[in-house]
Amino acid sequence: MLDNSGLQDQDSDASESSEAVEIIVNVGGIRQILYGDILNRYPETRLSELVNCLSGGYDAIFSLCDDYDPGKKEFYFDRDPDAFKCIVDVYYFGEVHMKKGICPICFKNEMEFWKVDLSLLDDCCKSHLSEKKEELEEIAKRVQVILDDLGLDATENRWKRCQKCIWKFMEKPESSFPARVTAVFSFLFILLSSVVMCVGTIPELQIEDSEGNRMEHPTLDRIETVCIGWFTLEYVLRLISSPNKLHFVLSFMNIIDVLAILPFYVSLILTHLGATMMELINVQQAIQALRIMRIARIFKLARHSSGLQTLTYALKNSFKELGLLLMYLAVGIFVFSALGYTMEQSHPDTLFKSIPQSFWWAIITMTTVGYGDIYPKTTLGKLNAAISFLCGVIAIALPIHPIINNFVKYYNKQRVLETAAKHELELMELNLGEGKVGGAGHEPEDARHKRKDPGVPVWSSNLKLSHSDTFIPLLSEEKHHRTRLQSCK
């Protein structure tokens, strides 16, 4: 217990002007001397309150720090000293820069402890903070999806539970062995349907109808019908069991699924009913056009391939680089086609009839294709072709590196997030195991109370027992469940 003499000394010191006060702060074993006139530049911060708390007694002091030595007049804080060195710079430079190697989420917590506004964080550091937040949110979503699959709500009726089982069976191949087998069958049906579509165009495998028109072999039609039946059943089951019907219908991959099966049914309707409403030739042309749409089913492979999904994401985030590529090629095509047309006009057998026609030559030359259907014959024209070829190679090569970086970055990020989500589940299982070993006598009272509620999953009571520097709300606020997500992974 501190004596009254120490308190009287503090009162006499507090009577001095706050601008002349000198305080000693010990953060994680690192001592630092700070001055009141500097700290009062930001009066809402904890250090500024520390300068003016001496007259408030020990209650005011210990509400701001972890310990206090009245003899040395030293305030103790059990906080990160590296983060404090960065945060204290705000009093001298008016902004905070995050030191490399510090976890952004932990640094944010340190700023909140010292009551330094996040708006004072420099923009370059805010980007790291937002990126880390997105990663933690993604981990939380993945963990929550897995926990939703494991948890059973006793308040749900039988149809709701059946919907969840169907959804998990159709959407999550890793959930069970039958689901994995079904995913393999779906993948094989996609390949079989694509092969049938290609083989059906071989003239030797086609037959002629009564009017002499060539058509696909009936066996291929039957295989096509079986594949479409499987795709239809798969789509209907996923639609019925979907927890969010609107989001499901508007999803890009589900739109691809509809485009893959829609031409079959439209062609079927036109075949049986279209002949009575329009001429037979128009019906056949419409059916032929709809059959081309069957190529959309090849995109269904992206549902079963993480590599294709990663490639799609990389291209989606590389629009700027792709735009630069198209701009480079457009400028080069216009310049070299105009030069090629001008230089080839002196040759009597020139193949460059106009500048728009020369666009085709410039495209196949800059993209290093070179079909040979149009080529220069004069010396200057050949020199122009050589330069356009080199410029095309450079223009195509420039944006490739950023696109590859986006692909690798996203792929590695997905692997890290997947590993982090599995790690969180392992921690939950470990906490659950410790709860069982401890027995009912050592279990917290609130946890025992929650175990009596059948609507709360068994693992929920153990999640609040884990501790970390960073807590992320994982489930809904109504249930008040929180899980441990380590931000420094």
From TrEMBL:
Family annotation (Pfam families):
BTB_2, Ion_trans
* Physiological role: Regulatory alpha-subunit of the voltage-gated potassium (Kv) channel which, when coassembled with KCNB1 or KCNB2, can modulate their expression and their gating kinetics by acting on deactivation upon repolarization and inactivation during maintained depolarization. Accelerates inactivation but has relatively little effect on deactivation. Coexpression with KCNB1 or KCNB2 markedly slows inactivation.
Alphabetized SUPFAM superfamilies for the sequence? POZ domain, Voltage-gated potassium channels
Q: Name one GO biological process term.
A: protein homooligomerization
Q: Topology versus the membrane, per the UniProt entry? A: Multi-pass membrane protein
* Stated family: Belongs to the potassium channel family. F (TC 1.A.1.2) subfamily. Kv5.1/KCNF1 sub-subfamily.
The encoding gene is: KCNF1
The protein here is known as: Voltage-gated potassium channel regulatory subunit KCNF1
**One example GO MF annotation:** voltage-gated potassium channel activity
Segments crossing the lipid bilayer = 181-202, 246-270, 322-339, 383-404
Q: Where is the Potassium channel tetramerisation-type BTB domain?
A: 23-124
Keywords, alphabetical: Cell membrane, Ion channel, Ion transport, Membrane, Potassium, Potassium channel, Potassium transport, Transmembrane, Transmembrane helix, Transport, Voltage-gated channel
Which residue ranges does the record assign to the Ion transport domain? 180-414
